[in-house]
Amino acid sequence: MGKAPIAIISKSCNCQSIVVFGSLPDPSNKQRTKNKKTMPHIINLPKIEDPRGNLSFIEELKHIPFKIERTYWIYDVPGGQVRGGHAFKEQQELIVALSGSFDVVVDDGRVKQTFSLNRSYYGLYVPSGLWRQMQNFSTNSLALVLSSTPYNEDDYIRDLEGYKTYRAL
């Protein structure tokens, strides 16, 4: 049974998810089930509205499915530059646009999804084993990334062809 190319556009939570140039995952493949721990998805974070200014927060193992081991942020990205362009063997991430906007392209080797992040109370959960890159940064954007592991260069897959080989295993 062949897999037909698809293009799906869905909008929720003012974020956009677009599947481009791929095929639907094989439901018999346990790695690609729609289990929220294995698929990238938007997490609606708590938002406390107050006339003095709003507040949002993230609690590990409550709002995200992992313990936070590392936090970093990406800022002052020159126009047209792309960040990321790698996958992690073990690390899971939550990516939040604290300021401005940017797109996160997540690729499992067969299906690409683009998530446009532009609100500080939405986070994109990216499970391990998926290729991801960040692009289309607006001026003064600030990306917060929460990681499930400390930095480990051996966890990175930085070559797309090597990633495709890794996914085929």
Instruction: Report the sheet with the most strands, covering strand number, pairing sense and barrel closure.
Output: 7 strands, antiparallel
| Weakly predicted, low-confidence segments | 1-35
CATH class designation of the domain at 40-46 and 62-169: Mainly Beta
Helix content: under 10%
Distance between the termini: 21 Å
Mean pLDDT: 84
Relative strand content: 35-45%
Shape category? globular
Q: CATH superfamily of the domain at 40-46 and 62-169, please? A: Jelly Rolls
What would you say the CATH architecture of the domain at 40-46 and 62-169 is? Sandwich
CATH topology of the domain at 40-46 and 62-169: Jelly Rolls
Q: Which class do the helix and strand fractions yield?
A: mainly beta
Radius of gyration: 16 Å
Spell out the helices and strands N to C.
EEEEEEEEEEEEEEH
Strand order of the largest sheet: 1-2-10-9-12-7-14
Description:
With about 170 residues, the protein is mainly β. It has a domain at about 40-45 and about 60-169: Jelly Rolls, CATH 2.60.120.10. The protein has one helix at about 160-169, and strands at about 5-10, 15-25, 40-45, 45-50, 55, 70-75, 85-90, 95-100, 100-105, 110-115, 120-125, 130-135, 140-145, 155. It has a seven-stranded antiparallel β-sheet. A five-stranded antiparallel β-sheet has the order 3-11-8-13-6, with no helix packed on it. A hairpin with a 2-residue loop joins strand 1 and strand 2. It is globular. Mean pLDDT is about 85; it is low at about 1-35.
